[in-house]
Amino acid sequence: MQKRKALITGITGQDGSFLAELLLAKDYEVYGIVRRSSSFNRGRIDHLHQPSEISGLRLIYGDMNDSSSLNKALRTVKPDEIYNLAAQSHVRVSFDIPEYTGEVTALGTLRMLEAIRESGISPRFYQASSSELFGNTPEIPQHETTPFLPRSPYAISKLFAYWTTVNYRESYNMFAVNGILFNHESERRGENFVSRKITRSAARIKLGLQDKLVLGNLDARRDWGYAKDYVEAMWLMLQQDKPDDYVIATGESHSVRDLLDVCFSRIDLDWHDYVEISPHYFRPSEVNHLMGDASKALRELGWRPTINFEGLIHIMVDADLADLQANNKFQDPNAGELEYQRAAR
Questions:
Q1: Minimal CA–CA distance to 18: which of 51, 54, 47, 39?
Q2: Is position 130 annotated as part of the catalytic site?
Q3: Are residues 278 and 169 in the same domain?
Q4: What domain range includes position 277?
Q5: Cα-Cα-Cα-Cα dihedral sign, residues 114, 117, 123, 127
């Protein structure tokens, strides 16, 4: 029997790497679209890519800003499934680079869907939507019919991508779905995201490599799950008889303070002794409370999370401690942000 083929955009990210592992374990041929860049950023998938003849993973060059490269990728691979995970995915940064965020996150999705339509093939398409679509909606918890009230360029771009996916499904009879995923983290999360920034910094503080941790709004509440659970939901959506949209969440919300409590308690420290607040890390418009209702996913996909909030934070801080101890890494987690600020002056 011929193997199914999957094409993943954003394969070098947290979700892309976990999804690639999942699909390879299910005996797919997996193709990932990667951009050419001046820095090599494939650390999350290095263990999968060598050698590609054995692993089943192949990388091809492309860009969500370049329609011709997307068309070429589809003609080359002829995938059975496409997972569109590529985005400028940092909410705070989207306020600084709104045009680029819209180009990649919104129009990139349109380019991919149009490439599918023009290709003559009929792959199943997964669009990575976001809980940020809901913004400051008064409805808690949020589910598939909750009104969207986006509060950032990132969320607005994701809203465009969401409705474009729905439009192509309804207009061209595509099997196209939106996974409205609430916050999902892991030991592979980028260090500029608050969850990983906290666990990485806590590990560095424990080892005497860092003195303080600078954060923004500690009162924001989010529904945090484990990314490895969430990519399973992505795959399940594309195995259904009919395409539909699904909220994926744990059904619990916790504040950034709660995250600090669990993280620093794990390493027997009091976060109050190390955390400082800076206005720089506040968003121009904040989203106060996100919590998802994934009952539809449980009912129709049979999906439920396996890792709770405390377990997730323990996984992350334990992994950061082990990594720092094994590799003797001394890089300041704020270094990239500081370089960005210097460049912007």
A1: 47
A2: yes
A3: no
A4: 194-222+254-289+309-344
A5: positive
Whether 301 maps to a domain, the answer reads no
205, 147: one domain: no
Residues forming beta bridges with residue 226, ordered by sequence position: 185
Which of 21, 81, 132, 337 is the catalytic position? Answer: 132
In a domain, 300, yes or no: no
Asked if the structure places residue 303 within a domain, the reply is no
Is 152 an active-site residue? no
Q: What is the pTM of this model?
A: 0.89
Beta-carbon contacts of residue 339 (< 8 Å; ≥ 6 apart) = none
pLDDT of residue 47: 66
CATH of the domain at 25: 3.40.50.720
pLDDT along the chain (345 residues), means of 10: 93 95 96 73 63 71 93 96 92 90 96 95 97 95 97 96 98 98 96 94 96 95 98 98 98 97 98 94 88 98 98 98 83 45 36
Question: Which CATH number fits the domain that encloses residue 208?
Answer: 3.90.25.10
**Same domain as 143, residue 19:** yes
Catalytic residue status for 81: no
Q: Which of 69, 89, 94, 130 is catalytic?
A: 130
Distance between CA atoms of 38 and 32, rounded to whole angstroms? 18
What per-residue string of b and e applies to 46-64 under the rule 16 or more CB within 10 Å gives b? eebbeeeeeebbebeebbb
Q: Is the separation of the CB atoms in 199 and 313 below 8 Å?
A: yes
Q: Is residue 294 part of a domain?
A: no
Given the residues 154, 162, 230, 246, select the one marked as catalytic.
154
